[in-house]
Amino acid sequence: MYKLVFYVPVAELESVKTAVFAAGAGNIGEYQECCWQVLGAGQFRPSAAANPFIGQAGKLESVEEYRVEMVCEDACIRAAVQALKAAHPYEEPAYDVWQLAVL
């Protein structure tokens, strides 16, 4: 079992979650599309070689984003990350994948 955590701009929240859920993430027992989400602010400065979805190269940017957390079975974690990358508007989406201990 894994935990997938990612950050996504407010306007793209539902479309990215839908893609990741469709890949099999977010299932807990008899419940589907389970996640935790909280609004915060992300910060970044795109390099001159970047093609930012939001902001301009060389300029510090702050964006309202959601942090979204969900569990994912071993069998679908790679598909979930691929779906996240395909659906996310950023060229370099920020995400973490943590393997969880089974007790």
UniProtKB/TrEMBL annotation:
The protein in question is named NGG1p interacting factor NIF3
What PANTHER family would the database entry show?
NGG1P INTERACTING FACTOR NIF3, PTHR41774
